[in-house]
Design a protein that fits this description.
Layout (H helix, E strand, L loop, with lengths): L2 H24 L2 H29 L2 H25 L10 H14 L14 H30 L4 H27 L5 H26 L3 H7 L1 H19 L13 H4 L3 H14 L6 H36 L10 H18 L3 E8 L2 H8 L1 H18 L5 E4 L4 E7 L2 H14 L4 E3 L2 E3 L3 E8 L8 H17 L4 E4 L2 H4 L4 H6 L4 H13 L4 E9 L5 E12 L3 E3 L1 H10 L3 H21 L5 E5 L10 H11 L7 E6 L7 H13 L3 E7 L5 H7 L4 E4 L1 H4 L6 H16 L3 E4 L5 H10 L3 E2 L10 H11 L11
Parallel strand pairs: 6-7, 9-11, 11-12, 12-13, 13-14, 14-15, 15-16
Antiparallel strand pairs: 1-3, 1-6, 2-3, 4-5, 8-9, 8-16, 9-10
Helix pairs in contact: 1-2, 1-9, 2-3, 2-9, 3-4, 4-6, 5-6, 5-7, 5-11, 6-7, 7-8, 7-9, 11-12, 14-15, 23-24
């Protein structure tokens, strides 16, 4: 509760209770009656204030509920004021007060406005429950109260009519309160149960008072008026809870447990009361006993049926919020938890951290190992994520190979969890006997108490934007959302003012089908002679609106939508055509192309490549096939056989991006390799970092021992070039020598060099 409301309510409530105790111990009935009325009035003022506040902060049906309760409480206040002047125990004197109280009972009927949960959407069930509960309460009221009123107030028809009307209203309101309590669920349950209990207490107090007065127990009736204080206090508490309540995010599909037994409790009570009232009639006693047993059996049987139904619905609801493959939450559960966390943050400003994770090259696993292996990998990833989280954190699978994590509370602790998640992927996954290295792209966004309010959807979108940025960097790993990412829109959106990745994907498919992708070439320089000894083929997409797109702008779409084989076919075909043209001009050099990794599992690959070379009349030694170090090999023996067949045909084999993964040394031992390309992350720091220099030197030495040449990627300056020459590296490639060049520029370069030392001035 908010401090002002809670403090006022506690102060008035404690004062009222103390006053009642003192009056009961040291005062007479008249004084006690006055204290009851005064305490009720004080609590009524507090309750009206809280009810007005609740109506202001609520929306929809709940605003109408609290508006009606405000009017009803004012009516009850008028009745209480009239009761102060009435002598306790005089029914006739309290007729005006009862008439004023009827306004409260009518307003309390607004309880029906409390939204029902979806499980109880059938109004027929509500009507039947209302009729059953109402009939049961009428039986109890008739047996215990109404007959007594008839006998006691036969001389005053007006008093009897008012009392019976008031009691009838209490029966109706109590029926509604029982039904509302039975069917309400979720986070609104606390305030509804408190409000309904307060109404029921007032109803029972009124019935008890009338019964005692009619039975000439005036003093006892006065002391029963303490129930008024309790009832009004509960209504005030309910209004205060409404002011501070968190809105319901997702309605539960499962009925609350009270719905199983509460509607039948009045029926059971009515059965016992009716049986007790007529048990003294000898002829009816056996029949009443049998009827009572029958009713109890029916109630118990109905309870068991409902219990089984609820158990099945719990299981169904649980399955509806869980990913059936991995067992973690699904997108619906994550959205519900995230929205709830944001709602709580609006109240207490607690920090929230959201992590979005995507598996790089997951489709490669499906293609090379099969979909069952991919399912096993997803399950293993989910288990590894769970092992990194804290109690109370939420992990969900929100897409094919995408996961999301919600962490509430301390930001430093949440960051530690994010780093644990990143580091957990350092160890390979064992899938069907194969070690699979899979890398995640992770995006993290955090909001603290000082940040502006955001929605759950925008938080997840920010985390995914950071994740996509990590993937676009080409390195994966963890990326934290920053302000610059907010201004960084996808290229297609920036160009078109709102285009989508789906549109870009459609255009990419058409470009592949029409062979509209282009190929550029980056020269490779012999560090001993300075001559151009090779070129690497690199793909580009000349987009009609966005200009020439680099691979990092569209290859993520290619990988995630299974287009890599088609792209590889287009690139290899165009590269071989250009190589054939250079060969005819007498200036051919080695051409390096990257193959889609699962292609290495195709036993027809050597024949396909050989046919492409023969068709263009090209020597096999001019072609170098590059394989990435971290590719997934589903069958190492078959891959070794295929690569051996390629080498036997004269085609060179190179391991690309050495140092970016974890298994290259075993590949060098197991596979026939002619060349290793050291990744730029290892090459670039060698001038300033002695450890990096030592690693690169050791790799060069090991490669030479194994009979493989070494190509260094990412050479950006003269100092790096000189240091690589000193370390004995064979070939250099990077912007220091040349950026990727088109076919015409490469042709001119090769013709001008003609075996001589490379001269950058030729490039202009």
């Amino acid at each position: 509760m908010r401090a002002p409301h809670a403090a006022a309510l506690v102060l008035v409530g404690v004062s009222a209770i103390i006053a009642l105790i003192v009056a009961a111990l040291f005062g007479d009935t008249r004084i006690y009656w006055i204290v009851v009325c005064v305490a009720s009035a004080a609590l009524l003022a507090t309750a009206v204030w809280a009810s007005i506040r609740a109506a202001r902060v609520s929306t929809g049906r709940r605003r109408w509920l609290w508006s009606a309760m405000t009017v009803g409480l004012l009516g009850w206040a008028a009745g209480t004021a009239l009761s102060v002047t009435a002598a306790p125990g005089t029914v006739a004197a309290s007729v005006p007060a009862d008439a004023a109280h009827v306004a409260f009972w009518l307003a309390a009927c607004a309880l029906i406005l409390v939204p029902a949960t979806r499980w109880d959407a059938s109004w027929m069930r509500i009507v039947l429950d209302a009729m059953a509960v109402g009939a049961a309460l009428f039986v109890v009221a008739w047996a215990l109260v109404v007959q007594v009123i008839y006998r006691a107030d036969a001389q005053d028809a007006r008093a009897a009519a008012v009392s019976i009307t008031c009691l009838s209203a209490t029966v109706v309101v109590t029926t509604l309160a029982v039904l509302v309590v039975a069917r309400v669920g979720g986070r609104q349950r606390l305030f509804v149960v408190t409000l309904a209990t307060g109404v029921i207490v007032l109803a029972l107090t009124r019935a008890t008072s009338v019964l005692l007065v009619a039975g000439d127990a005036a003093d006892a009736a006065a002391y029963a008026g303490a129930g008024w204080v309790v009832g009004i206090l509960l209504i005030a508490v309910a209004a205060t809870l409404e002011v501070t309540a968190v809105p319901e995010v997702r309605e539960s599909a499962v009925p609350p447990r009270t719905s199983l037994w509460l509607p039948y409790l009045p029926i059971a009570i009515a059965s016992f009361v009716a049986a007790a009232a007529f048990m003294g009639v000898p002829q009816l006693a056996p029949m009443l006993g049998a009827a009572l047993v029958m009713v109890m059996c029916v109630i118990v049987r109905q309870f068991l049926v409902l219990w089984d139904n609820r158990r099945l619905m719990v299981a169904f609801a649980e399955q509806a919020l869980r990913d059936p493959l991995t067992g973690v939450g699904n997108r619906a559960l994550f959205a519900d938890r995230l929205t709830h966390a944001v709602d709580l943050r609006q109240r207490d400003r607690s920090p929230i951290t959201v992590l979005a994770l995507d598996l790089e090259d997951f489709k490669m696993v499906n293609v090379s190992l099969g979909h069952p292996a991919g399912d096993c990998l997803l399950t293993a990833v989910a288990g590894r994520l769970l092992s990194c989280l804290r109690t109370g954190d939420t992990v969900a699978r929100v897409g094919g190979d995408e996961f999301a994590v919600l962490m509430e509370g301390d930001l430093d602790s949440a960051r530690a969890v994010a780093h644990r998640v990143e580091q957990s992927f350092d160890q390979p996954f064992v899938i069907e006997g194969h070690e699979v290295m899979i890398r995640p792209s992770i995006g993290v966004v955090a909001i603290s108490g000082h940040d502006s309010d955001v929605s759950g959807e925008s938080l997840l979108a920010r985390a995914e934007a950071a994740m996509h940025a990590a993937r676009a960097d080409g390195l994966g790993g963890l990326r934290t959302y920053s302000a610059e990412l907010a201004d960084r829109q996808p290229a297609v959106s920036a160009a078109r003012g709102g285009g989508t990745a789906v549109q870009l994907l459609g255009e990419l498919r058409r470009a592949i089908d029409r062979a509209e992708l282009s190929v550029v070439y980056q020269p490779q320089i012999d560090l001993a002679t300075g001559a151009v000894v090779g070129v690497e083929a690199l793909v580009r997409w000349p987009h009609p609106e966005l200009g020439v797109l680099e691979p990092d702008r569209f290859l993520p779409l290619v990988r995630h939508h299974g287009l890599m084989p088609a792209v590889t076919g287009v690139v290899v075909g165009k590269a071989l055509d250009d190589l054939a043209s250079w060969h005819e001009q007498g200036c051919a050099v080695r051409l390096a192309v990257n193959l889609f990794a699962p292609s290495l599992g195709d036993v027809e690959l050597p024949l396909t490549v050989a046919w492409g070379l023969a068709e263009r009349n090209l020597p096999a030694e001019l072609l170098t096939i590059e394989i990435t170090e971290d590719l997934v090999l589903d069958n190492l023996h078959r891959t070794r056989s295929i690569l051996g067949d390629l080498r036997a045909r004269g085609i060179r084999i190179s391991i690309d991006d050495f140092g970016s993964g974890y298994s290259a040394l075993s590949y060098m031992r197991e596979l026939p390799v002619d060349e290793m390309k050291i990744c730029r992350e290892l090459v670039q720091p060698i001038v300033d970092d002695p450890r990096a220099e030592a690693v690169v030197g050791a790799v060069i030495e090991v490669a030479h021992v194994l009979g493989a040449a070494v190509v260094a990627e990412g050479v950006e300056d003269e100092h790096t070039d000189i240091r690589l020459r000193q370390l004995g590296c064979d070939v250099g490639q990077g912007f220091y020598y040349s950026r990727p060049l088109g076919y015409d520029t490469v042709t001119a370069l090769l013709a001008a060099q003609s075996g001589r030392r490379f001269d950058r001035s030729v490039l202009g």
